[in-house]
Design goal:
Layout lengths: L11 E8 L5 E10 L5 E10 L1 H14 L9 H4 L3 H15 L9 H13 L8 H9 L3 H12 L1
Length: about 150
């Protein structure tokens, strides 16, 4: 293999950026192929077309860009009791400087109590949903509710 300015002591060159004939960006990596004595005899180049990844990034940027978001449409969520529970729980956690991963049994009991005071259990299947949100069983939710009544 003639040197062509390639450092033959390296086994892998890259990754590096290239421009395809049609203008698409490519990310490339080249591996030096050696014979049985270790002499470089060729290169194997692998090219990855980045254009689809760039399209995905643009789509993600559109979704993640906060200045393009509109407020939640009230007419779509006015009767969404699950959304109201989600908002209540997350606001409570934020105000208490807590995260789901660190909730204790007492924290979950407190949330069940507060959700009960807010009327969250008036909805059919609310106990199952709240249990799912808090990572506890429906039976545990009912147990906490009965403890508050006693």
């Amino acid at each position: 293999m003639s040197n062509h300015g390639v450092d033959e002591s390296k086994d892998v060159i890259g990754p590096y950026e290239k421009l395809n004939w049609d203008g698409r960006k490519l990310k490339s990596i080249s591996a030096v192929i050696r014979n049985s004595t270790g002499k470089a005899v060729g290169l194997m180049c692998i090219n990855l077309d980045l254009s689809k990844f760039e399209e995905f990034r643009q789509i993600i940027d559109r979704f993640m860009c906060p200045d393009r978001l509109i407020p939640q449409p009230q007419e779509l969520f006015k009767d969404d009791w699950q959304e109201r529970i989600n908002i209540f729980v997350h606001e409570h956690l934020r105000n208490q400087h807590k995260h789901f991963d660190n909730l204790t049994r007492t924290d979950k009991q407190e949330l069940v109590k507060l959700l009960n005071q807010e009327g969250a259990f008036k909805q059919k299947n609310a106990a199952s949903y709240i249990g799912k949100v808090l990572g506890i069983s429906r039976a545990t939710v009912y147990k906490y509710l009965s403890e508050f009544k006693n």
